[in-house]
TrEMBL record, chain A:
<comment type="similarity">
    <text>Belongs to the RNase PH family.</text>
</comment>
<dbReference type="InterPro" id="IPR001247">
    <property type="entry name" value="ExoRNase_PH_dom1"/>
</dbReference>
<keyword id="KW-0271">Exosome</keyword>
<dbReference type="GO" id="GO:0071038">
    <property type="term" value="P:TRAMP-dependent tRNA surveillance pathway"/>
</dbReference>
<dbReference type="InterPro" id="IPR027408">
    <property type="entry name" value="PNPase/RNase_PH_dom_sf"/>
</dbReference>
<dbReference type="InterPro" id="IPR050590">
    <property type="entry name" value="Exosome_comp_Rrp42_subfam"/>
</dbReference>
<dbReference type="GO" id="GO:0035925">
    <property type="term" value="F:mRNA 3'-UTR AU-rich region binding"/>
</dbReference>
<dbReference type="GO" id="GO:0071035">
    <property type="term" value="P:nuclear polyadenylation-dependent rRNA catabolic process"/>
</dbReference>
<keyword id="KW-0963">Cytoplasm</keyword>
TrEMBL record, chain B:
<dbReference type="GO" id="GO:0071028">
    <property type="term" value="P:nuclear mRNA surveillance"/>
</dbReference>
<feature type="domain" description="Exoribonuclease phosphorolytic">
    <location>
        <begin position="38"/>
        <end position="162"/>
    </location>
</feature>
<keyword id="KW-0271">Exosome</keyword>
<comment type="similarity">
    <text>Belongs to the RNase PH family.</text>
</comment>
<dbReference type="GO" id="GO:0016075">
    <property type="term" value="P:rRNA catabolic process"/>
</dbReference>
<dbReference type="GO" id="GO:0000177">
    <property type="term" value="C:cytoplasmic exosome (RNase complex)"/>
</dbReference>
<dbReference type="InterPro" id="IPR015847">
    <property type="entry name" value="ExoRNase_PH_dom2"/>
</dbReference>
<dbReference type="Pfam" id="PF03725">
    <property type="entry name" value="RNase_PH_C"/>
</dbReference>
<dbReference type="GO" id="GO:0003723">
    <property type="term" value="F:RNA binding"/>
</dbReference>
Length: 287, 250
């Protein structure tokens, strides 16, 4: 929790009203984004994303598993977030658990789409190896190293970067001789398949302070928020998930306005993030 | 709600479970024969649990929920001093609530969603240093569980005499193909393309909680929002009349 004096609060709110925030940004500008990919060699894909002082690592691990009998033609993806107490003392114990659970649920809602798979950022049917028998289980883990607000957007960006960095080993299936036999699989060490990450949405959180909304709030600004809306938006401009935070009620027309503003913000963020990710990948290939 | 149910409960005889064909056909009928924009008949009653400070029972089609409120009572000793009240929400399912036995006794996700939907409506300043417990139990899960829990919990809070800015009512909409279906049942939820859940304070015209998942274009969000707000205000009237009724009985 950030403790602000009434003078500081006033300064912060006055700045937002005049479209000049305390760090010199405009209301809808993001802090500088830095992306590093391939930071964890043991994972199939990983990325570290920093936006301002918020620093997170996302890793993707793939394991062979059995598909859900109800959905035999789909792989499984699970997303977990860990808020380490090294980032902030309030993350210790229950405070961290609650925040982790909230972030995990919000990310799952944003990235995994509806029950039928519509709007999912990850194509689950691409994870199938043998229908009904073998599929890839993707474990996406986010770790918060340092928190200075806007965790959800940064985690979303890190997962997007980690997925585009992910290589799934190629699997050769030796067809089973009889239907009861489980098919033999042979995981290749050399050949990797890349993911199509063009469908992965970006998450934009607009925080409402006073009458205005700001993008990419720092933790100081977040302490003054009345409510916030996190939209995940894919490249077609469709909303794939939305979560409201904060206790204050919002007028429906304000929500619709916030959605259209976040759509606008997401276009620029998507372009910036894509170029940063490809630059990071190029940098990794060189080294 | 579009239809006000007669104040009788439904017979517990099992519903005839037909294998549902694909919903995305041009003209399909909902499994329970409702119109796309028609809610299930709702039955609400306060005072379901005697020992609680307030309680309510809600029945929306096959979804049956009981919510009891305890408190305001002294916060746990370990908790820090707080000049506003605390709200503690817990949602649990009975072991026989769904077709497969004993799935998810405690639902953490729903508990936190219920908390977020209610905290904006309660005047927490009115009971400093104390905690209000909201315990929701889903007796039978028949789809749209969370909206029913939220609406029922706000009715129970009102019954307990907790100060609130307004009642909270909640409705969800499923997107199936090109159609929007209000107040979906379990069968419809299991194959939905997207879901849209809203909790509102109808008289103040404010949204306390909103979650969307799936794939939504902006015009569809507008349509769903309008549909939900309309249904929420109707549900608000129903809740209000239930409260007046219970008050006049005393």
């Amino acid at each position: 929790m950030v403790g602000l004096s009434s003078g500081e609060k006033h300064f912060l709110q006055g700045g937002i009203a005049q479209d000049l925030r305390s760090d010199g940004r405009k209301r809808l500008t993001y802090r500088p984004i830095s992306v590093e990919t391939g930071v964890i060699p043991q994972a199939n894909g990983s990325a570290r994303v920093r936006i301002g002082a918020t620093d997170v690592i996302a890793s993707v691990k793939a394991e062979l598993g059995k598909p859900n009998p109800l959905q035999p033609s789909k792989g499984k993806v699970s997303i977990y977030v860990d808020c380490s107490p090294t980032a902030a003392p309030i993350f210790q114990g229950r405070g961290g658990e609650e925040l982790s659970a909230e972030l995990s649920v919000a990310l799952q809602r944003s990235l995994l789409g509806g029950k039928s798979g519509a709007g999912a950022g990850i194509d689950l049917s691409a994870l199938i190896v043998v229908e009904g028998k073998i599929c890839w289980d993707l474990y996406i883990d986010g770790l918060v190293l340092s928190s200075d607000g806007n965790l959800l957007d940064v985690l979303g960006a890190a997962i997007k970067a980690a997925l585009s960095n992910t290589g799934i080993p190629k699997v050769n299936v030796n067809a089973a001789t009889s239907p009861e036999d489980s098919a033999e699989v042979d995981i290749s060490d050399e050949e990797f398949l890349k993911f199509d990450t063009s469908g992965v949405p970006v998450i934009v959180t607009l925080t409402k302070i006073g009458r205005h909304y700001i993008a990419d709030a720092t933790s100081e600004e977040e302490s003054q928020m009345s409510s916030a809306i996190s939209c995940s938006i894919n490249k077609h401009g469709h909303i794939c998930g939305l979560t409201k935070r904060g206790s204050a009620g919002l007028d429906p027309s304000v929500i619709l306005d916030m959605i259209s503003v976040s759509k606008h913000v997401s276009e620029q963020l998507m372009i910036e993030l894509d170029s940063k990710i490809s630059a990071a990948e190029a940098c990794e290939d060189e080294s | 709600m579009a239809a006000t149910g007669a104040p009788t409960t439904y017979s517990p005889s099992p519903v005839n479970r037909k294998q549902q064909s694909i919903f995305k056909d041009v003209d399909w009928v909902r499994p329970d024969g409702r119109g796309f924009h028609q809610c299930r008949p709702a039955f609400l009653k306060t005072g379901a649990v005697n020992s609680a400070s307030g309680s309510a029972y809600a029945e929306f089609g096959n979804t049956k929920v009981i919510v009891s409120i305890f408190g305001p009572r002294e916060s746990q000793k370990a908790m820090m001093y707080s000049d506003t009240g605390r709200l503690n929400c817990n949602v649990s399912y009975t072991t026989f609530s769904s077709t497969i036995r004993g799935q998810g006794a405690d639902n953490k996700e729903y508990s936190s969603m219920l908390h977020k939907a209610l905290e904006g409506a309660i005047i927490l300043e009115s009971f400093p240093k104390t905690t209000v417990d909201v315990f929701a139990l889903v007796l039978e899960s028949g789809g749209s569980d969370l909206p029913v829990i939220i609406s029922c919990a706000s009715l129970a809070l009102a019954d307990a005499g907790i100060m609130m800015y307004d009642l909270v009512t909640s409705v969800s909409v499923s997107c199936l193909g090109s159609n929007l279906v209000i107040d979906p049942i379990t069968e419809e939820e299991s194959c939905q393309d997207g879901s849209f859940l809203i909790a509102t304070m109808p008289s103040r015209n404010e949204v306390t909680q909103l979650t969307i998942s799936g794939d939504w274009a902006t015009p569809k969000i507008h349509e769903a929002m309008e549909l939900c707000l309309n249904a929420c205000s109707k549900l608000g009237e129903l809740t209000r009349s239930c409260l007046t009724e219970s008050a006049s009985e005393e």
